[in-house]
Design brief:
mainly alpha, 0% strand, elongated, 201 residues, 69% helix, single chain
Length: 201
């Protein structure tokens, strides 16, 4: 990126960026991904479409970054270090209250229907959400291996992210209830930690 392009992209303050992301998520909840337009985002946020395209390139990247920004503490899982894997996974869960979890669950259900039929959105989600979060989980798990909590050859290590997302998603699909802190904490203790050979008491 040239210095001129970098300067252009840096004009939006963090506060303004957060405001834009919140507006994008509101529109997503109201109309869904397919009906969300850059025109609507521009109107809702009193921005120009040119600014939005200059800053984010297009709808897919804007949506992916808005979803990432909406996660408590950004991603930041690697910054959590309670001294135990159980403590780390519990601390991650406790960063979202039950209301936030319900909103995020509904939002992600809507996006999941769209993402696999939209290569641009799938690529943006991989770049800005999936890959960074996988890297964060790998760091947390590596610390658990280094502490001697988890064996490095445990086959469940490759599936921790799958287990966490599965528990979150299945709560609504199977139980017809939103995910809650209490449910996810009990799920971590009953499923994730035993799979990794970590004592839960």
């Amino acid at each position: 990126m040239t210095e001129v392009a970098a300067a252009r992209r840096s004009r939006i303050t963090p506060e303004r960026e957060a405001e834009l992301y919140e507006a994008v998520l509101d529109l997503l909840r109201e109309v869904g991904y397919d009906a969300l337009t850059m025109d609507a985002v521009a109107a809702r946020t009193r921005s120009s479409k040119a600014t939005l395209y200059r800053q984010w390139g297009g709808k897919a990247e804007l949506v992916a970054k808005a979803v990432r920004h909406n996660k408590p503490g950004g991603l930041g899982l690697g910054e959590i270090d309670t001294g135990s894997l159980k403590g780390d996974l519990h601390a991650l869960t406790l960063r979202s209250d039950d209301c936030q979890m319900e909103q995020n669950s509904a939002l992600m259900r809507g996006l999941a229907m769209v993402v696999h039929g939209n290569p641009d959105l799938l690529r943006a989600f991989r770049d800005h959400l999936i890959e960074p979060e996988m890297a964060e989980f790998r760091r947390v798990l590596q610390r658990a291996i280094d502490r001697g909590e988890v064996r490095a050859d445990n086959p469940a290590l490759d599936y921790v992210m799958h287990m966490m997302i599965g528990g979150f998603a299945a709560r609504t699909m199977i139980d017809e209830q939103p995910p809650t802190q209490a449910f996810l904490l009990s799920y971590i203790d009953a499923v994730v930690l035993p799979a990794l050979g970590v004592p839960t008491s």
